[in-house]
Structures are given as C-alpha cells and as structure tokens.
Amino acid sequence: MKSNLKKSILVCIAGSVLATTAQANNFKEADDAIHYRQSAFSLLAYNFGDMGAMLKGKKPFDAQAFNLRAENVAALSKLPLEGFISGSDKGETGALAKIWAEKSDFDAKMKQLQQDSAALAIAAKSDDKKALKQAFMKTAKNCKGCHDVYKKD
Amino acid sequence: MKSNLKKSILVCIAGSVLATTAQANNFKEADDAIHYRQSAFSLLAYNFGDMGAMLKGKKPFDAQAFNLRAENVAALSKLPLEGFISGSDKGETGALAKIWAEKSDFDAKMKQLQQDSAALAIAAKSDDKKALKQAFMKTAKNCKGCHDVYKKD
C-alpha cells in the first residue's frame, strides 16, 4: 500500500516543481514559481476572454458555458499569488521588481481580484444580465489596474 | 463604457490564445491547446503533490492548507480536457495519438478524475483522516491509470 501510494503520487506530480521541504510554498527555484503564476494567468485569461467574447456578442451567449467559465476564473484567481516568491522578479517574467517593494499593496490587489471573481461567479448564476456585466467589468478592471502598475509593457 | 469594456478585457486576455469565432473551444492553433492543457496539468500536479507531501509526512499536515489544495485540484481537474482538440497530438506533447482514436474512453477517464477530485475536496473538509487518505489514493490512481495508456513514457 505504501509503495502504491508512492507510485501513484509520483505519477500525479510528474513534471511538477515540488520540493519536499516544509516551506510555505514548494518551489525549488524562482523559474518554477514564474512558470506557476504564468500558467495560472494564462488559463485565467483564456477563460475570462471567452466570457468577454460572449458579452460582446462575438460568440453566442451560453448561460451554462458562461457559468463554468466564471467558476474557473474564480478558482484560478486564487493561484497566481503563491508564485510571486521573493527573488522571482529575475527571469523570463513581465513582473516588475516594484511588486516586491510594495508587496502588501500587490497582495491586496490580487485578493481584490479573487473577491471580484467570486462575486462574478455568483452573478453568473443569476438571470440578471445587467448585474452580470457589471460584475464582469469590476473583475476586468483588476487586470488593467494591476498591470498598469506592476507589469512591464 | 463600451471602450472601457474593450480595454479592460484586452488587458485581461493579454497573452491568452483566444479567438473570436463561435467554436466550442477558442484555440487558434493546436499548440495553444497543448499549452492550455499542460498549464492545467502542471498546476494540478503542484497542488496535488503538496497534498501528497503532507500525507507522507514530508511536511507538517495542515488541514486548512490541505483543504485549499483539494479545492484547487477539484477546480483544475476540469480544465485539461478542453485542450485535447483534434490535431493536437502533433507538437510538443506527451499525449499519444491513441487518445483521439479512443476519445470516449479518454474523456470518461478525465471525467473520473474530476469526480474523484470533487470527492477528495469534500473528504478534505472532514476530520476523518482515513477517508481522506482513501479519497486521495483514489484520485491519484487516475493519473497513473491514464498516463500508462495515453502518455508517452
């Protein structure tokens, strides 16, 4: 059983960047943390963009699909912050060093994104299209608000 | 307002691979779909691996952290399937062409992972450590079970 557990876990974490030290996060190197947050942002952008396409009429609005996208965005919004570890301003990243100089403000902005995404996921379950658009806009503003300050052009 | 909406969405989907056609998925190219599913698997592996480290005693067990990881895994398990679009067996991928030859079996396996991950997220909220370990093992088996058949060594 113990050997099976080990084998199954090894397959599940194949390709992951897990270390086995008792740190708050488990990144071995800054590049792993950068990859983690970029993966999360990429998935977030894809799911959010699909919602935007529906709201802008670039594809048919599908309430069920919109709801799933909103749930994905709410879940994904929780992930990137863990990847902004100390020292990960160096490497293949658009993140400005300013993030770490103003970490508490950056963290607050990321948490605002999480809150607004959670509210959007709730709004997506209602039939109130106006409220849904407002919740979408509120979430979208987080991206620009944060990128303007903390991301390279 | 319309211009603001456009600007905010554009920032939110910066770097995404969104097309604006009315397809079921929004990938412009097979490589975008490959990148999408690999990003999801990578985040999944990281979060799942951390749970494994806690269960194996490689780091202290933290019920709250374990619960968050389980929620992440449950959410992330829903994402990769969308990236297995037709033609995306070609490229930088470990996915075998067999996936598309036996797509309904592959889809069923991915949905089993989603179900087991959802059950794990529920188990993670209880104090029953034995049930939690069993739910973890059940989820872990999906990785090996699917990789053995559908992934290059």
SSE ordering of chain A: HHHHHH
Shape of chain A: globular
CATH class term of chain A: Mainly Alpha
What's the helical proportion of residues of chain A?
55-70%
Give the total of beta strands of chain A.
Answer: 0
Task: Please describe the biggest sheet of chain A, giving its number of strands, its sense, and whether it closes into a barrel.
Answer: none
- Here the CATH topology of chain A equals Four Helix Bundle (Hemerythrin (Met), subunit A)
Question: CATH homologous superfamily of chain A - what is it?
Answer: Cytochrome c/b562
Mean pLDDT of chain A: 91
Gap between N and C termini of chain A: 52 Å
* Assembly context of the chains: homodimer
Largest interface (CB within 8 Å) is between: A-B, 52 and 52 residues
The Cα radius of gyration of chain A reads 18 Å
Structural class, from secondary structure content of chain A?
mainly alpha
Number of helices of chain A: 6
Low-pLDDT runs of 5+ residues of chain A are none
- CATH architecture descriptor name of chain A: Up-down Bundle
Domain count of chain A: the total is 1
